[in-house]
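Troubleshooting: if your tokenizer reports a length mismatch, compare your output against this known-good record of 319 residues.
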Amino acid sequence: MRTLFSTADEKPKNRFRRWRETIFERIVPVELTPLGDGVFKGVMEAADVGPLLITRVTQSAVNTAATSDTIRRHGKHDTLNVAITLSGEVFSAQDDRTSIQRAGDMVVLDRRPTTMASDADTRTLFIEVPRECLERVLGSTRRYTALTIGAEQPGTSLVTTFFHELVRTHEHLTPNMATRMAYIGIDLIVASIAERLAHEVPKNLQGTLIVQRAAAYIEANLGDADLNPAQLAAAVGVSLRHLQELFHEHERNIADWIWRRRLEVAAQRLADPGFAHLDIGPLAYGCGFKSQSHFSRRFKNHYGLSPSEHRWRALTLAT
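Known-good structure output:
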């Protein structure tokens, strides 16, 4: 694979800004926030094989968010991303589903609002695949986005091995052979996803709709410091016990979900120049925290930086 960009070639103060620009150009515009201490490091390598854009990304810990605004800024709605975690650990959230990918696991992410968070020194292979190749066989991507397709599956192991060899040898392939190999790789991806879906236990549709309504209520009321699981259950018209059971079916905890979304929104606002005029306290209150000290403690525990450190780093790198 050819190296598109390495932060080692840049001055420390320019590294994250240039990294973000390269992500925008090669993959899609997203909101990036560095996590943890230390100088950001990243290497991006690329291989274009037939209709596939394949990108290998090695990077320090970072939070990645595709928002409605960033999605409008790209024209890649006819494709989607298949991500194979090669090392480290990645958190993915899309379409009311959250999951974690470890080495060898695969996940599909569509061009809809998404959150990803990676550990330090995570390496991921992103494969940009024509949407119709998956939806023609598997139906809407909403069935399998952010669903971990585990390394323990034989199909997933075949996908990883195939693409490892494809990126190693693609420069020696004729254009016709490269296209043929690309579609073989897509067929392997489809087979692996189908294998994973075969093990899925269908979730109660009504229960899924209740969870979606609850998630939407949380988003609309994050600034309410009194928002809690009992209030949420009352708002969507079910008992607290039933709502907890529904969230558990979706591998979520209600209180943890509320706090995580408050922290994520706070992190986005701290990194947004449009909120730079707000002191930390008012910003924290606007995200539902009752005190600045409580906010600062939770924020540092989650991101490894104080809110002011996070803001300074994000706004400094943006200039």
